[in-house]
Amino acid sequence: MIPQPSVAHRGGRGPTLTDGTVVVANEAAQGVAALLAAELRAATGWRVACIGIDEPALGGAARLRLLADLPGGPSTASAADAGATGTAFRRAFPSPVEEGYRLRVSAEGVDIEAPSAAGAFYGTRSLLQLLPPDFLRSAPSRRWDRVELDGISIEDAPRFGWRGMALDVSRHFFPKDFLLKLLDLASFHKLNVLHLHLTDDQGWRVQVDRYPKLTEIGAWRRESPAGHESDGRKDGTPHGGFYTKADLAEIVAHAARRFVTVVPEIDMPGHMQAAIAAYPELGNTAQHLEVYTNWGISEHVLNMNDGTVRFCREVLEEVMDLFPGPFVHIGGDECPTTEWEASADARRRADELGLAGPRQLQGWFTAQVAETVTAAGKSLIGWEEVLGAGAPPGAVIAVWRAEHALGAAVEAAETSHRVIMAPEPWTYFDWAYADDPREPLAIRPAISTDKAYSFEPVPEGLRQDLEGSILGAQCQLWTEYVSTPQHAEYMYFPRACALAEVTWSGRRRDWPDFERRLRDHTARLGALGVNYRPLEGPTPGQARTWLSTSAAPPVTVPRQAAGQDLH
To answer: Can 19 be counted among the known catalytic residues?
Structure first.
C-alpha cells in the first residue's frame, strides 16, 4: 500500500464481494459511503446499494460498513508510531479534523471506523488498494463475478496534517477537468491540500468581478518562450485562459467531497505584471505593459499607493469568498525593489511611514493585506521571503529556497510561525527526474523518485518542542516547461507517491521496500489513466530524444503506459 499504514496485520479470510454488495453507513459517513458505492458500481457494473446503519439489507450480500464521527480513534501507540508531529495540524487549524481510521477485513465483511468523515474516507482509499487495480477504472474492463479479499487489520493515522500538491496554472493554463482529476489522484494518495498558483507575471487565472480587465487582458499573453528560456526563441502563439467563479466553485466542491482543501495563491507585490498590464495605474511607471512573454522574474512590481493597496484588498476579498478553506496565500517571493528605489513616490511613501528606505515597503505592504485576511477569519501564507520582510504575527511560512530553506524553517518556528516545508532539492517536481537527454525539457536536473522519498520535513536542528510548528510538506510543479496535463502527470507521478508516504507515514524510510510497493502501485496508476513515468525511465512516447539501445539503458514499457505521449 502507498502510503504505508501505521500498523497492519494480515491473517484469515476476508469476504467475497459480488453483485449486490451493500455499503452500510451511519449518518456522518453517508457522503463517503455514497462515493465509494459509486466508484464500485462504475468499475464493476454491479448493483451496489448504499443504506443506513439500521436499514435491512438483502440476505447474503457482502457488507462494507462505514462508521464515522466516533469517539476515540487510532490508539495512542499508533499515533506515536506515526510521528511526533501527528497532532500539530489539529492544534493549529481553526476547524480541525481527525484523519485516522481503523480498517478490518474479515469473513464477516469490511469495517471502517473513524472519528471523522475524513478518516472514514481515507479508510476507503486503503480498501480500494486491497482490491484489484481494475476496480479503479471508470467503467468495467471485464466481467466481474466475484472478488475474494484476504483478511487484514489496519490502524492508521497521518504524521502531518498538511500533505499538499501545488500547481502553477499561471505560466501555463490547465483546464478545469484536469484539476478535477488531480484532486482525485491527490486524495487517493491521502494528500489533502491543492495549492493553486493562480496569478503571476505571465497570466491571471481567476475571475474578479470588480476588476474585469484582469481576465479580459491579464489572462492572455501574446507568445511564450520556445525551448529553454536561455535559447532566446519565442513560439509566436497566443496562450491563456482563466477559471470562472462557477468553475472554481465546482473545483472546491469536488475537493471538499474528497477532503482536500484548495488554497488560492495571489502573488503580490511582485510577480504582478499581468495585473499591471490590465490596470497600468498599479505600476510604478507610466509605461503600458503587456502580459510578460518571458519566463523568470519581471522587475515590474506593484506601486505602494493607497489605491493599489485597496485593489489588493478587494481582490483578496473576492478570492477568499470563492475558497472557504482557512488559508489564502499571498506569495511575497522574489520581489525586485529596483522600481521602488527609482520612484520618487515610493521613496516619499517610505519616508512617510518612517521606513529606512524603499526596500522595507514590502513588509509594510504585507501587513496591510494581512489585515484583510485576518478580518475574513483566515490565515495568511507567504513564501519565506516575507519572513525577512517582516512577516505579520500568525502568518504561515512556506520555505523553499535550497540555500535558505532549512534555516528559514527553524527561524520561522522559533518566532512562533507555523511552517510548510517545500524546499527545492526534494519537492520541486518541475525539475527533471534525471540528467538524461531522454527526459522532457525541464528547468534543471534532477530530483529522482528516491530523492523525493528521502525528504525529511522536520529540519535538522529544530528543537523538539517546536516540531509541532511544522504543519507538513508539499510538492511544487511550476509550469514554464510543462504545458499539458499529460506532461504534468508525468512530472508529478510517481514522485507524488513518494511525497504522500513522506507526509503520511512515519519517519522511517526503506527505499527498497517502497520501490517494491511502487512497482505494484504503477498498475493502479495505469488503471487511473495516469501518464506516469516508469521507474526505469521515460517510455519512447514520453521521451524527448530518441536514443538507440546502445546509447541508453533498456526501458521496460508497462502495458498501460504504451502509447502515452507528453506532446
So the answer is: no
Q: Is 567 a catalytic residue?
A: no
* Closest by CA position to 458, among listed 396, 501, 502: 502
Among 334, 436, 450, 565, the one annotated catalytic: 334
**Nearest residue to 160 via CA among 189, 185, 191:** 191
Task: Report the 10 Å Cβ neighbour count for 559.
Answer: 8
Contact 239, 173 (CB under 8 A): yes
| Whole-number Cα distances in Å, 315 to 89, 203, 309 | 28, 15, 10
Please name which of 331, 420, 422, 423 lies closest in space to residue 373, comparing C-alpha atoms. 331
Active site residue 145: no
Q: Which structural domains are found in the chain, ordered by start?
A: 7-156 (3.30.379.10), 162-561 (3.20.20.80)
Q: Could you give the CA distance from residue 402 to residue 423 in angstroms, rounded to a whole number?
A: 6
Task: Summarize pLDDT for 279-325 with one digit per residue, the tens.
Answer: 999 999 989 999 999 999 999 999 999 999 999 999 999 999 999 99
Residue 490: C-alpha distances to residues 33, 494, 564 (Å): 31, 8, 10
Inform me whether the pLDDT recorded for 20 exceeds 60: yes
Q: How confident is the model at residue 547 (pLDDT cuts 50, 70, 90)?
A: confident
Q: DSSP for 278-339?
A: H-GGGSSSS-------SSS--S------HHHHHHHHHHHHHHHHH--SSEEE----S---HH
Query: Which region holds residue 203: left if phi is over 0, alpha if psi is between -120 and 50, else beta?
Result: left
pTM over 0.85: yes
Dihedrals φ, ψ of 360, to 5°?
-85, 0
C-alpha cell at 135: 476496480
Spatial contact of 199 and 332, defined as CB atoms under 8 Å apart: no
Given 81, 200, 384, 501, which residue is catalytic? Answer: 200
Q: Which of 271, 329, 417, 487 is catalytic?
A: 271
Please provide the DSSP assignment of 439-496 as one string.
SPP-SS----HHHHHT--SS-TT--GGGGGGEEEEEEEE--TT--SHHHHHHHHTTHH
